[in-house]
Design goal:
Tetracycline Repressor, domain 2, 217 residues, mainly alpha, 9 helices
Amino acid sequence: MDDEAPGLPRRPRADGQRTRQLILREAVSLATVDGLEGLSIGNLAKALGISKSGLYAHFGSKQELQLATVDEAGRIFQAEVVEPALAAPAGLAQLVAVCDAFFDHLQRRTLPGGCFFAGAALEMGTRPGPVKERVAGFQGAFVGLIRQFAAAALRQQQLPAAEDPDFLAFELNGIILAADTNFVLHDDTGVLDLARQVVRRRLGVAPAQLDAGDDLR
């Protein structure tokens, strides 16, 4: 007997949810190489070895697929970068942690084309519509998170009183984006080591200070 109440939408089956998750994970990977505009039901079906009709059962249009891919990329980024940063002590340690977590996820080659959102922001920036808005919303939230960490560091007097959280968030995000671009172009982990040093120098943190657990104030 069906245990769902009459008239209510059926809940997606667990196997369908797992399939959708696998499809979206592949879509995120492909989009870092071919771009969101290069993402289609056809090339995704070919990469996964499944039929187009099977994909259409999950996504009714290219835009729906793109939006779902952006959301999945956000979920991956949350787990790979944001959550490790949130686990660090509030303030300066979180500023270092969020940058390090970003560089670490590049070094692990989580996605073949580097940061999904760095590429998507450039690609979709001149294409008005829901996909651009979704990408811009994510980017704004990430910079806002960096600013939040900077403001906490200021309140704890871990940064000079004259420091501006907005300026600092802009600078650190710039370092992050530059590291992504150079790493993707040159496939050189030395770029990421350099970026880690630049972040620490900008924040006035000695290279081993955080690892040693020293007082950051």
